[in-house]
Design goal:
Blueprint (H helix, E strand, L loop, with lengths): L12 H17 L9 H12 L15 H10 L6 H9 L8 E6 L4 E6 L1 H10 L9 H4 L3 H8 L3 E4 L11 E9 L6 E10 L6 H36 L6 E4 L5 E5 L16 E3 L3 E8 L2 E6 L6 E6 L5 E6 L2 E6 L2 H13 L6 H9 L5 H15 L3 E2 L4 E2 L3 E6 L10 H6 L4
Parallel strand pairs: 11-16
Antiparallel strand pairs: 1-2, 1-5, 3-4, 4-5, 6-7, 6-10, 8-9, 9-10, 11-12, 12-13, 14-15
């Protein structure tokens, strides 16, 4: 992966840092050079320059007040695993040389852990609790670039946009909510550039996976509590049914197998369940009871690309409209055009982002799509479910290629 391909074992760190700082001065300064930064760095430098940031580090720093930092901590699901993340740093043999930082999805630094000496140096950069550490605020850095690229990123010395960050390395990985696919924040390990060890890359990736695993373990505990609490209510009911949480994850199933998740229930619309067709959701003490409406098991969907993308869903005698994000409309359109063959995660990454480096972002988008619409997309490869009949309304145009939405994507129709 380009973002995590910076430093290998045996690299002369001092020499490499000197080369990168010379490269930075040439490229950012507009000089001619035969050297080129890594693609992820080049993209980020371009964005930083486009934002009007100064490479000399004079960009203003703003700190949120401590009460706002605490409010964000309490709202963040990452508070449930912050002690586990801290244990990752505590378990490192030479933790005196690094600092762990955890931000929220806005790039706000919420927690720091690790070496007090490194933290003091970070204070001098404004790299502390309450700071906004996005690309738009401080230029190319592992946290901000990981947020922008939706992928893990490691930066070393002169790869940072601001020269004041050149004495540093930083390795960051996004953390997603395993229930929803929503980006929760970023975990980062930073320290003096000359202390970087190749194992830091694996350590950051492990920390992100561990956080998501622990969050899912807590989710399983919540599902078990919902299963227990709902047992008296469903004991006397006949016929197939599901008990699901607010995100559509199945806590209990009767008469239907193989369904782990449905669309997040809403009181004003039906839910499509493979094998059952359209079902009605009913609130049930901290979750939802889902039972069949009856009628056809297939679901008809019309992707409306007129003006704001939306989806018209019909099954049996029920119809409802769902607004779509442009990204979700694009995914459905591309999967429709790909037919039964579908698209691999790599192919979908290239189609959506222009390269193969965004597999994590693709999976997160598909998770959010399933949360909104239910299991309408199969995996490996990604393709529309056999239970779905999708048509596309391109609007009042002579050919699909004339549709403004299609033109904006440069999709072959």
């Amino acid at each position: 992966m380009d973002g995590f391909g910076g430093i290998g074992a045996g690299t002369d760190l001092s020499r490499h840092a000197h080369e990168l700082m010379s490269l930075h001065n040439a490229v950012i300064g507009g000089s001619r050079t035969s050297l080129r930064p890594r693609e992820v760095v080049a993209r980020s430098w371009s964005r930083s320059l486009g934002a009007g940031l100064a490479p000399d580090g004079s960009n203003p720093r703003a700190l949120l007040p401590l009460d706002e930092v605490e409010r964000r901590r309490q709202r963040s699901s990452l508070r449930e695993v912050i002690d586990d993340l801290g244990a990752v740093v505590a378990g490192v043999g030479d933790a005196s040389q690094l600092m762990m930082v955890v931000t929220d999805a806005d790039g706000i630094v919420l927690w720091r852990n690790g070496s007090s000496r490194v933290r003091r140096h970070a204070d001098g950069l404004g790299f502390r609790e309450g700071a906004t550490w996005t690309e738009s605020a401080v230029g190319t850095n592992a946290i901000g670039t990981a947020l922008t690229e939706s992928a893990p990123v490691q930066l070393f010395s002169g790869e940072h946009f601001e020269q004041s960050q050149h004495p540093w390395y930083c390795s960051a990985a996004p953390i997603h909510d395993p229930r929803t696919g929503q980006l929760l924040g970023v975990v980062d390990l930073s320290g003096p550039a000359m202390t970087l060890h190749p194992a830091v890359t694996a350590l950051v990736a492990t920390a992100a996976r561990m956080a998501e695993s622990q969050l899912w373990r807590r989710q399983e505990d919540r599902l078990e509590r919902l299963r227990t609490a709902s047992a008296p209510a469903v004991a006397g009911l006949s016929g197939p049914l599901l008990v699901v949480d607010e995100h559509g994850w199945v806590a209990h199933a009767t008469g239907v197998a193989g369904t782990r998740r449905v669309a997040a229930p809403r009181i004003d619309r039906a839910v499509n369940v493979p094998g059952l067709g359209l079902c009605t959701p009913e609130p049930l003490g901290g979750g939802w009871l889902i039972r069949p409406l009856g009628g056809a098991e297939r679901i008809r969907m019309r992707l409306d690309l007129n003006d704001t993308p939306s989806l018209v869903v019909t099954g049996g005698d029920s119809t409802w409209h769902s607004p779509l994000t442009a990204r979700h409309a694009e995914i459905l359109l591309r999967l429709h055009l790909s037919g039964p063959a579908g698209l691999s995660v790599t192919a979908l990454s290239e189609a959506l982002y222009g390269d193969a480096e965004h597999a994590v972002a693709v999976r997160a988008e598909l998770s959010r799509l399933r949360r909104a619409l239910g299991p309408v997309v199969d995996s490996r490869p990604y393709r529309l479910s056999r239970t779905v009949e999708l048509t596309v309304d391109f609007g009042d145009v002579e050919t699909p290629g004339d549709c403004a939405f299609v033109r904006s994507l440069r999709v072959e129709t």
